[in-house]
Amino acid sequence: MSPDRRQFLGWAAAAALAPGLRLIELAQARSPEEAVSLLRRWGLLIDVEKCADCDACVTACRDENGWAGHGRPATDAQWIRKASLRDRGTGLVQTLPLMCQHCEHPPCVDVCPTGASFKRADGIVLVDKHICIGCRYCVMACPFGARSFVHEPLTGQKPDVPRGKGTVESCTLCVHRVDRGEQPACVEACNRDGGKAMLFGDLKDSSSEIHLRLRREPSTALRPDLALNPGVRYQHL
Amino acid sequence: MSLRIAAAVLVTLLGVASLAGSAELAGGRVALPVVKIEKSGACVAPTAEMRRNHMKMLLHQRDRTMHEGIRTARFSLKNCVECHASQKTGSVLGKEGFCSSCHAYASVTIDCFECHTPLREARAR
């Protein structure tokens, strides 16, 4: 083999290996200075069969994000709730945690007149409360009823979770925790105190547990007829 | 005659004294900003630059954090509060609060603390 040919083969091998090496690099945690990228998409997988008769996820979310209400259910904010579904034919009742589904094509973003409702590059749907004018179009557009409006002046917000009167809010997938490399509070609580029904991870990372389970086991999105491709998936529903 | 001159001098002196008094009084009535920096060490930029441009830094960092998830401590509002909150009240607001006293003096209304907490994070961790 001539040296030229050998060199050429070496380059070819390097070129073939390069994408693989890049993937390993991307799987590592993001540094605080680095912007979020399209190469990730955060999501949840919820096994409804394992979802116990508890509200550990709701309590954990409330404590983490500080949205405890004033005891006025009609106007109090609710970022996550336990929903009961009853099959009309068989009478089977299932309960599941319901929150922002972090859609790939979010209707709340489509209708927002100011650009306050937006989807981050890594798939987390958020409200930029600096821009939100409180029109509540997104509240009406969301098919999951996931968004709340803050009706009353607030004090005692959490340092990582600013909240204020006159703006819309919803589940942020605990974006402040995710950016630190942690799991959302609901997932942590479910795996500690609940039925271990919730799994959080990067849907695009082919080595992540959530990716592998979604590939091997059947799962469903809520309202698949709307083709919103939510980041939150359910099993055994 | 000399008595009249003496009286005039006295009136003038009294007038000057009362003027000085009213000037002092005016100084007392205007709430001067209380810039009490309890934590030792340098800020993230020189004082002159911070005074003039802190709002621009915060605005820039705000969009980067919200939309790009960049959470560096340097220009974050949370970091400002951590350092500048009063030792006594734990807040940047209030009569002697680092943020509010200056903004009251400059007659600037800010909305930051309508949503963000003005309190330093409890050092439980």
Task: Describe the structure in your own words.
The complex is a heterodimer of chains A (237) and B (125). Chain A is an alpha+beta fold. Chain A has two domains: 1-28, no CATH class; 42-235, Alpha-Beta Plaits (2-Layer Sandwich). Helices cover 28% and strands 16% of the residues of chain A. Chain A is built from seven helices and nine strands. A three-stranded mixed sheet of chain A has the order 8-1-9. Chain A has a two-stranded antiparallel sheet with strand order 2-3. In chain A, a hairpin with a 5-residue loop joins strand 4 and strand 5 (125-127). In chain A, helix 2 packs antiparallel against helix 6 (185-193). Chain A starts with a helix and ends with a strand. Chain B is mainly α. Chain B folds into two domains: 1-30; 47-115, no CATH class. Chain B has five helices and no strands. The radius of gyration of chain B is 23 Å and the shape is globular. Classes of the chains: A alpha+beta (237), B mainly alpha (125). Chain A binds chain B through residues 30, 32-36, 118, 120-122, 126, 128-130, 154, 156-160, 162-165, 167, 175-176, 179-180, and chain B through 62, 64, 66-72, 78, 81, 114-117, 119, 121.
In short:
Chain A is of the alpha+beta class. Chain A is built from seven helices and nine strands; from the N terminus they run H-E-H-E-E-H-E-E-H-E-E-H-H-E-H-E.
CA radius of gyration of chain B:
23 Å
Low-confidence stretches of chain A: 22-26
Proportion of residues in helical segments of chain A: 25-40%
Mean pLDDT value of chain A: 91
Task: Tally the helices of chain A.
Answer: 7
Radius of gyration of chain A, in angstroms, nearest whole number: 21 Å
| Uncertain residue segments of chain B | 13-25
- What gross morphology of chain A would you assign? globular
Distance between the termini of chain B: 82 Å
The overall strand count of chain A is 9
Number of strands of chain B: 0
